[in-house]
Amino acid sequence: MNRRIFLCATLAIAAWAVPPAILETAGLTIENLIGIRHPSDPIWSPDGRRIAFTWDLAGVSNLYVADADRREVKPAAVTSFSEGQIAGAFWERDGKSLYFPRNGDLWEVSATGGQAQPVWTTPERESDMALSPDGARVAFVRSSGAAGHDLYVRLLAGGAETHLVHDASGISGLAWSPDGAHLAYSAGSRTIPHNEAPEYSGAKIIYTITERTPGELFVVPSGGGKPVPLNVRAGFGGARWAGNSQLVFERESDDFKRRTILVADIASGVSHAIHEDVEEQFWSIPGNAGSAGQPSPDGKWVAFLSDRDGWDQLYVVAAAGGEAIQITRGRYEAWRPAWSHDSRKIAFDANEPDKPGDRRLGVADLSDGPAHAAVTYLTAGRGTDTAPVWSPDDSRLAYQHTDWQNSADLFAVGARPAATPVRLSDSMPAGIHREALVEPEYVHFPGPDGQPVPGWLFVPRNLDRTKKHAAIVWFHGDGINQNYDGWHVQRNYAVYYSFHQYLLQKGYVVFAPDYRGSIGYGRAWRNGVYMDVGGKDAKDAWMSANYLKALPYVDPERIGVWGLSYGGFFTLIAMTDQPNLFRAGVDVAGVVDYAMYYSDPYHGAWTASRIGTPEQNPQVYANASPISHVDRLAHPLLVLHGTADVNVPYLESVRLIDQVLKLGKGDLVTFMVYPGEFHYFTRAHVLRDAWRRVDDFFAENLHPEEVR
Question: Is residue 613 domain-resident?
């Protein structure tokens, strides 16, 4: 790896005291698992002395403020809501208070805490709130139901409103120009519901499948005036300002093979392409990697991610056009680029070569021009450091850290070599003893074609390795995701990692493979699913049981399997393709038939980009249809699904149950429905029930207390 590396001292994880002795158990219960919070969205105060962030506890989030120098021991809660989410908060320009959307209105609370109050209350709902660069105004969209949507700008002092635009369909993606003179927005997008009542569900239950169409990109003077259409579809990612007169946006072809970065002039409405990636298979850089074009604050450059050399790397291209310049190089994946305010540096996070589960914060200094960029690294050690956010004076970065002893927390570090990180939050309940948690071991095993498949092995502390024990295999979801060297960086999967630590405490060996399609290993591994979904990738997953069977301390007759989403899909394949390999399985919101998934307008293009259409590739779709051979099911299966799931519609599991019953396999399957729950289980009562069911299900079928 061509890096100029400056490593800081070992990360000061033990910023708050933890029990000094190595304990026999981690003190884990389902209740204190639910009590693990997740921080997100750090925002620096205008003076750079404090950081506000949201802290989520089982689907309820509140605002907290931490001292960026940690003069205060713990962050202070500034709101105390018992329900709902907070997202899109921003500081008042003097730093004395915070604004945030809630219940369709804008609210305000003192940065030192107190009673939060609405800034205004209206019968209509407001959304897409965006603070002007000078902090004096807020733009927002007001919905009038069937009457349409309106774009307003409101003075925070005094409350005077200026109406800018009306659109019958929808307005979104608000973005202020740096000088505050204009607003960019997308209008004309539509949400089209498709209702169906399949025969197997009965005419009384209507399933709504949503189709979304992108809007057109517009610019309007923020003080009022005629909107200027830019004659381009903005997609769903919005547009970013490059200076005060140009906008950067992306187009992606429906088959995910072509991604184009364009710049539009707001005066002429003319746009031109400054970079294009053409994929032979499909564009697979993960959505949360920040791959979109990011203009520098001075408008001269656009940073973006590309995998043109086989790995996700950081590039820069002039906003006026020209040859893209590669900034990072090596067998690793660089994600989430963020420009400094002075346009001289780009912060990012990247995994280590041959250490895909660990990530570091890097900074590319472009002071001498992108062609002479100098890359340094600010953090070191095990774990994941992700999502850097610059302080107002560019002297520090806030970021998220996880490792095998710590769930996600926020830290700050100086943007210079050898700076010592400062811990800002501690998200674990006091009852969890970090020293007793189980450390993952990075291993490989041969896949169906002999390629080494990476995975993470967890062995309980003090396990008697002369005896044989029960084991559980976990398949991560999303397809394009991965396991990490410790807690997962996303809250959605961190809850599963925490539950695996609970299962380890029960005596199970746990294994988590990163089957082909997983991120962190380069484009070739990530795109290994092309025209083969449910093929070698699924075999990679279930062949991890063969690896476990070869371990002398694993009982080959007591291996369970479970997974979420894509992992639930793999669980169904494993339980039917290899009916006697696993003693029991848990499918959490898994796809049962990709032909059915393709027919959903929300997922059709995504599916076709990977395996074409059912007419083009019937055999691939047959492989990706575990429901077609569910007659082979031979061991107990627990199915969990939320009714509000849009990622994998609840209808998938309904169809699975109907087919299981028709085949006389109903005695093998237990189905639990969670009303109103989304794809990733969030709420405390849902997590409590789901974890108890999974715990009891595996205990009943795998008998972890037995040592043979």
Answer: yes
